[in-house]
Amino acid sequence: MERESLMKRLNRKWFMNKALEYVVLTVATLIMVVGIHVFKFPNHFSFGGVTGIAVVVSAVTPLSAGTVNFVLNMALLVLGFMFLGRGFGEKTVYVSILMSVGLSVLEKVWPMNQPLTNEPMLELLFAIALPSFSSAILFNIGASGGGTDIIAMIMKKYSRMDNIGTTLFLVDLVITVSACLVFDVKTGLFSFTGLLVKSLMIDGVIENINLCKYFTIICDHPEPICRYIHEEMKRSATIYEGIGTYERKKKYIILTVLKRGQAVELRNFIKVHEPEAFMMITNSSEIIGKGFRGVN
Predict the structure, then answer these.
(1) Distance CA 40, CA 123 (A)
(2) What span, in angstroms and rounded, lies between the C-alpha atoms of 174 and 122?
(3) pLDDT tens readout for residues 243-259
(4) How does the average pLDDT of the chain come out, rounded?
(5) Among candidates 179, 258, 247, which has minimal Cα distance to 218?
(6) How far apart are CA 36 and CA 48, in angstroms?
């Protein structure tokens, strides 16, 4: 009976986590869809990837950018299933389909025949920021927007190329350069700027999402601090002994990692209850272990 109850709780927890994960996937994908449809397509910005190809192809064919994007994404999904198998990434499949359908729907209900404003630099910022922010969230939970990422997965599996990222960047660069030829130099330069800034912004957002505070606390009385970490913050800590070289006195060193909000609370607690303590607080965006990120 207890075993069945435990299994039900575990199944319920798994379902809730899965549901929350797909809510995040949906919101992030819709943010990307809005950024692409409202700011990228009308201005003919081409940063590479499937949407970049769609912008260029739509300019030289009667097809709309949304239609080209849908066709290319579906074709790449078929290639993914052919070369990577059915389990090549359910999240990637979900995001890719949702993004393609979302762009096609927006194209029908909210056609963008011209830019939203007459400020191309402002629109470039939003065309970079919204999809980059969305991509960072997707990458952080193990998903992607599909498209050229599927090509990267296939290349990784069937080739011995060491730096697939560089290859994809070169592909994106060719697409961006083509914007200069199809449109004009101004559009091409805007697109090239977007290509450079996009990758930097994605890395920055991912780092900030995962940012934690690593504490090294040197003190005389570790018990109150550790009790606060355990009971109030539901975290753990490690203690070891050391000797201060100046006074040659025995000291205790506490190591712990906390989220940013918790870090402020612990810092304030130590200042009040252990004012003689010495604290070193370091930023870290890669904490892997129980309570943080699992090892995949």
Answers:
(1) 8
(2) 25
(3) 988 888 999 999 999 88
(4) 83
(5) 247
(6) 12
